[in-house]
Amino acid sequence: MACLSGFSLSRIPSILMLAVLYVAYVLIGGLIFWKLEGGLVRQDIARLLEEKSALLDTYPCLNQEALDTMAQVIRDSSKVGLSLKGNQTMDSFWKFTSSAVFAATVVTTIGYGNMSPSTTAGQIFCVFFALFGIPLNMVVLNRVGKYMLAIERNACDFIQGKTNHRKLTRFMIHLLSYISGTALFFVMPMVVFKQQEGWSYSQAIYYCFISLSTIGFGDYVADSNPDRYYPEWYSILMASWIFFGLAWLALVINHTSDILERLNTHLKHWWSPEEPSNAGPVDEVKEPPVDG
């Protein structure tokens, strides 16, 4: 009972605050997206309906059934990488390099949706491949992230040994790590994507974050335009960028989570009064004895 009482007094207010903050954050985000995108979508729907009517008027032989068939052909062509402009199959759908990139998007849970197995054997294999590949990917990324963090800490220790400014050194090393990571995984890929995909800088930076955060909407996917030619090294560069970029961004997100946890601790102390010193043996946590 004492344990339950301590939990209800110290933990529940903090949990409720986090729950309210989380729900409010999601609802505010939904409201902003609704205001930003809702009006444009309504305009696009009205424009597309006008274009559909104009198309049917221009080509009287094209009825609704034929239009639906044409739309289905376009969707199927896009799925297999066939460009209807040149009537030639895109070389990067389901060749080895693009299949390897697809496998990387499976184990990293990005899941763009532009490519997906259509055979029964491929779908069953994808299930088992993801079942074992996702934990393996998490272990490997965690290990790579620890190496990145170790390099950062070794640099901190080295510079601290030369100077007496501990906090300033840590701040500068963290700042340098963020700047170099941003340049390596966002700025440089942004330039490459603009050149290879023809995207704007804002579209490229948006794609970089959506991919490395494993959100993977699929509205922008590199190395998938059937009307563009991609060099062989492009798929290899994509796979390497995804892997190391995921590890770096995971470190940044972990740092952000740590900051939020510290903020939550401060809010918890502010919300709940400090426990009295004679709270009882249940609230005390003793370190285990160290064997000599």
Beta-strand fraction estimate: under 5%
Query: What's the number of helices?
Result: 8
Kindly state the percentage of residues in helix. over 70%
Mean pLDDT: 77
Description:
This protein has 2 domains: 1-62; 89-271, Helix Hairpins (Orthogonal Bundle), CATH 1.10.287.70. It contains 8 helices and 2 strands. The chain has helices at 2-10, 12-58, 64-80, 96-107, 120-162, 166-197, 201-212, 232-271; strands at residues 82-83, 88-89. Strand 1 and strand 2 (88-89) form a beta hairpin. The two termini are 37 Å apart.
TL;DR?
One of its GO terms (biological process) is stabilization of membrane potential. The protein has 292 residues and is mainly α.
Highlighted features:
292 residues, 2 strands, two-stranded antiparallel ribbon, 8 helices, mainly alpha, 2 domains, 1% strand, 73% helix, Helix Hairpins, disordered C terminus
